[in-house]
Design goal:
- The chain is about 60% helix and about 0% strand.
- It has about 130 residues and is an all-alpha fold.
- It has one domain: Globins (Globin-like, Orthogonal Bundle).
- Helix 6 packs antiparallel against helix 7.
- The longest helix has 18 residues.
- Bound molecules: protoporphyrin IX containing FE.
- The site of protoporphyrin IX containing FE has 22 residues, from helix 3, helix 5, helix 6 and helix 7.
């Protein structure tokens, strides 16, 4: 119905887990992005991302219970994110979204958000 959250519409936590697992499988072999992740084990980072996305889309607020206010731009400040990093991130995320075989309308809603969020996270200007 109209009041269903996107979290519910996509099938809840298992779908977000699949999305983020696919995404991090790409990150694991990405020559630009992999070195940016401080921990050798990507599992905890994947867990934070899963919980954040679940919360954003109307699921349980476990992310904030564990991590506090998201403040994502601030949390990304230690990492150099330019156009190349943004585009690599989006490439991995696009592949992950496509793997889910979501209803087109839902896939578009999800993607629009992810794309805007990735542009918002950029924190360095490219050299002219
Ligand atoms: C954390 C990179 C965009 C959500 C991180 C971390 C890195 C990173 C290196 C640290 C890993 C960790 O220990 O958690 C990037 C790059 C991006 C990007 C290169 C390119 C644009 C985004 C976007 C979102 C996002 C668009 C959300 C839609 C998160 C979350 C965390 C995180 C939720 C964990 C924050 C925490 O609780 O500490 N990101 N990120 N990231 N990122 Fe990104």
């Amino acid at each position: 119905g109209a009041s269903m959250t996107l979290f519910e519409a996509v099938g809840g936590e298992p779908t977000f887990r699949r999305l983020v697992d696919e995404f991090y499988a790409g990150i694991a072999t990405d020559p630009l992005l992999r070195p940016m992740y401080p921990e050798e084990d990507l599992g905890p980072a994947a867990d934070r991302m899963t919980l954040f996305l679940m919360q954003y889309w109307g699921g349980p607020n476990t992310y904030s219970a564990q991590r506090g206010h998201p403040r994502l731009r601030m949390r990304h400040a230690p990492f150099r994110i330019g156009a190349a990093e943004r585009d690599a991130w989006l490439r991995n995320m696009r592949r992950a979204v496509d793997r889910l075989d979501l209803e087109p309308e839902i896939a578009v809603t999800l993607w629009d958000y992810l794309e805007r969020a990735a542009y918002f996270m950029v924190n360095v200007e490219d050299d002219p």
